[in-house]
Amino acid sequence: MTRRFSNLIGGQSVDSPSTFLSHNSSNLEDVIGEFPEATLEQVRDACVAARRAAEAWGRTPAPIRGQIIGSIGKAIEREKEALSRLVSREMGKTLKEARGDVQEAIDTCHFFQSEGRRLYGQTVPSEMHRKELMTYRRPLGVVGIITAGNFPIAVPSWKIIPALVTGNTIVWKPSEDCPASSYAFVKLMEEAGLPEGVLNVVFGGGAGAAGQFLVNMIDERDERGRKRLDKFAFTGSTAVGRQIGEIAGRNLLHPTLELGGKNPLIVMADADLENAVSGALWAAFGTGGQRCTSAGNIILDAPIAEEFTRRFLAATQAITIGDPLKYPDVLYGPFINERFFNSWQAHYDWGKADGATLLYGKGRITRESKPSGFQGDPTAAFYGWPTIWADVQPGMQLFQKEVFGPTINLVRVNGIDEAIEAANSVDYGLSSACYTNNREWAYQFKERIQAGMSSINNSTTGAEAHMPFGGVKGSGNGTRESGIWVIESYTYWHAVNDDISGKLQLAQMDTDYIAPKSPFSVAEIDGV
Ligand code: NAD
């Protein structure tokens, strides 16, 4: 029997009139559970519950909040293997990758547990006597969160954990692609002792459903005229991020927007080609290209372009693909959903229209058309051939647009200047990589690349929980996740002055500035 799940609002399980099913991405007949499509009223109720809990949670001492974050980390660590299997089944990534997804949340908890004992403010000298100046970090209040499904644990943890430790309450709408993984994550957070209403979860889709209802809450005020949401944090496509940015802007709310990418990987003439090919293969096809940090364009310096292409093609032909739970050694599994498969299918038309050369790849993997390394039943889910395009130029839509599937472009350039120019000519700037051992070229790349994250002699993917994650241009609005940097997104600075003089002292007016004496001239000593 299919298990039914509920929204979690104010500590209560709440069902919705409509539901949707979550499937095993590698075997679409395997239903994981039935989830509610939260209604507008339920999304609003979740905001009310979060508002009700905000005052007490915001005033809970930060070290105590940190202790709860530590307990969340321990609960996830205990359930790591089971949660990783659920993520692999629901989302379709390999078990090794799913363990990494879950581990990132554990690392994030470790980091932010101790942040509860820091959250430093400053004491600052005043212009006046008997007056003290201080700064405090204050919570923003109620945070609306919407996330994509390709990292169902890591990416939500990057938002939820720092938002909680800094004293905010939350309404989270997880991706409809991974509701079961999200539910499990929330239950582990609840187990750690979060008070009722601090973390509320509403399930459902995006446009015209729970996602859009939650975004609409940015525009709404309660009966006392107070905003329903004080902050919004979104990870997903650039198109939806723009819509959220517009609504947030007119409400003077500063959103966190972590969006798409079309990431360049440059291979220079002197690169270690074996290392570059393995990094490029992972960047292009790891997770079936369904990472925001997947490589989109491999930019090849002319002297090694042919040799790199030969080796890269051979490595691609040797990839194994299939059901990641049954065949743990596959490089990648199925598409997360049919929508991603359809948009990836459509990119074959762009390539043709662009006049690029299809070097490898034949669309959907079927019983009749499958790469030699395919394992399992290709009809059980949506699987795609690893696809390579050659003769791609910066102006082409193949070069410019994010595909989010197993496909990669090869672009030939002459030298580091052309390589960086090509890399910078997309309207995204999330991740980037350059393979070279020439210090000058590496320096040029580091200084001139337009990206939030860069690797030298490493792939475009791979975040660590204590480094800032985020992009520039179409990849976001400049906010950062992880490490100390994310704290800026969930707090505001409160400047306080405490005057013990017992009289009115005015800054810049009642101040004993020292008057300068008459000017001294060094030339006088020299008798000039
Ligand atoms: P998407 O924007 O379609 O969906 C993401 C989330 O937003 C889902 O929860 C969805 O239900 C919701 N949503 C969709 N339309 C909405 C709307 N109109 N109003 C409110 N909510 C809505 O993204 P996707 O296509 O599912 O995910 C892939 C995209 O996410 C890619 O562009 C990828 O690069 C990006 N991504 C970025 C990061 C990052 O950290 N920068 C990480 C993962 C994925």
Please tag this protein with its features.
alpha/beta; globular; 23 strands; single chain; 5-stranded parallel sheet; 7-stranded mixed sheet; Aldehyde Dehydrogenase, Chain A, domain 2; 15 helices; Aldehyde Dehydrogenase, Chain A, domain 1; binds nicotinamide-adenine-dinucleotide; 528 residues
Task: Write structural notes for this entry.
This protein has helices at residues 40-59, 62-78, 80-91, 95-115, 154-165, 179-191, 210-216, 238-250, 273-285, 302-317, 338-354, 397-400, 415-423, 439-448, 487-490, and strands at residues 7-9, 12-14, 19-24, 27-36, 123-124, 131-139, 142-146, 169-173, 199-201, 231-235, 256-258, 263-267, 295-301, 321-322, 357-360, 374-375, 387-390, 407-413, 428-429, 433-435, 455-456, 472-473, 491-499. With 528 residues, the protein is α/β, with parallel strands linked by helices. It folds into two domains: 7-118 and 141-259 and 480-492, Aldehyde Dehydrogenase, Chain A, domain 1 (3-Layer(aba) Sandwich); 263-464, Aldehyde Dehydrogenase, Chain A, domain 2 (3-Layer(aba) Sandwich), CATH 3.40.309.10. Helix 9 (273-285) links the parallel strand 12 and strand 13. Helix 2 packs across helix 6 (179-191), helix 3 crosses helix 4 and helix 9 (273-285) packs across helix 10 (302-317). The mean pLDDT is 97. Nicotinamide-adenine-dinucleotide binds at residues 146-148, 150-151, 155, 175-176, 205-207, 211-212, 215, 235-237, 240, 243, 258-261, 292, 402, 404, 430.
